[in-house]
Amino acid sequence: MNYPSAQATAKAASPEPLVRMGGPGKVTALESAVPGSAVSTQSGLASQVSSALASASSLISNLGTWFSIAVLAVALLIAMLLTSSPLARCTREFGTLKAPGWSNNRVVAQVASESMVRSIIGGIAGLALGLGAVAIINAIGPTISAGGTTTAPAGGQGAPA
Fold first, then answer.
1. Phi and psi dihedrals of 52, rounded to 5?
2. pLDDT tens, 3-20?
3. How many helices (H) and strands (E) does the chain have?
4. 63-107 tens-digit pLDDT
5. CA–CA distance from 96 to each of 8, 72, 104, 115 (Å)?
6. How far apart are CA 7 and CA 24, in angstroms?
7. What CA–CA distance (Å, rounded) separates 30 from 17?
8. CA 32, CA 35: separation in Å to the nearest integer?
9. Using one digit for the tens of pLDDT, what is the confidence trace for 38-69?
């Protein structure tokens, strides 16, 4: 390979020339022939991809944690709204319960038990939906791995060990 002509052709084509080399000895020859050039090897690119995948995996893990916290906070707010909304409409019922002699504590216990039953039913339904969603995501979702396997390039030369 004639390095000056390859350099001129590569400079005309793109600001960062891409040259396919046959082996480590030719990479060293190219580095010495073109001073100030940056030569990337397959192993170097593979380590960059591996570190990018590890970073993406960490980001997804952290994002999943914060997303779970946000979903839990929203679920608690919705549960509070769903519990307090019927209470405002039930003032007549509370009066009806107090007329035969129910105490305030007994009315509060009645409301709390109704809320607990609703919460248990909602929790079971939410758990079933969540497990179903996890099963669907695991069935169709891709896996992210930082320690991927390396395959030989099309030419078969220069594959990292």
1. -65, -40
2. 555 555 545 545 555 556
3. 5, 0
4. 888 888 999 999 889 888 877 777 777 888 888 888 899 998 998
5. 94, 36, 12, 19
6. 18
7. 12
8. 6
9. 667 777 777 777 888 888 888 887 888 888 89
Give the residue, 154 or 41, on which the prediction is more confident: 41
- Distance (Å, whole) CA 56 – CA 130: 24
For 150, other C-beta atoms within 10 Å of its C-beta total 13
CA distance 116 to 47: 53
Q: DSSP E strands: which ranges in 19-101?
A: none
Q: Which of 51, 42, 30, 25 shows the shortest CA–CA distance to 147?
A: 51
- Tell me how far CA of residue 54 lies from CA of 43, 68, 76, 78, 147, in angstroms: 16, 21, 33, 36, 8
